[in-house]
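Appendix B: a complete holo record

For completeness, this appendix reproduces one full record from the ligand-bound portion of the collection. The bound molecule is prephenic acid. The inputs are the chain sequence and the ligand SMILES; the output is the full three-dimensional arrangement of the complex, encoded as structure tokens. No fields have been trimmed.
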Amino acid sequence: MTTSDTGTQDVDPAVRAELARLRDSIDNIDAAVVHMLAERFKCTQQVGHLKARHQLPPADPAREARQIARLRALAEDAKLDPAFAEKFLNFIVAEVIRHHERIAEESGNGTAASAPA
Ligand SMILES: O=C(O)C(=O)C[C@]1(C(=O)O)C=C[C@@H](O)C=C1
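The structure of the chain with prephenic acid bound, as generated:
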């Protein structure tokens, strides 16, 4: 390939077909991930409102520790890097906590601290 683009014009048609087949599956998986994340955030939004209504802290480190241990074990069984699974969960949970904090602030209860681990 002479340019930096990732086009496949000069590639064997069989290779191009295999790449297209794999990319179709990747696109389906990415769509499933987006839909699953959307459902997860719908649940966590409800958790955020519940916590705000009952003055519960946005973050629950003990719950997170259990989630991480569980996800790392699932990842190992699935032959996925457990460190990646943990980073991915932490990334999502950090965003959820930001949402919870915003919901708490908007409901006039923005001072809650984290629960003890
Ligand atoms: O389970 C909760 O208490 C949540 O607020 C949800 C959630 C999560 O996204 O899974 C987010 C923040 C908490 O620190 C722990 C877990």
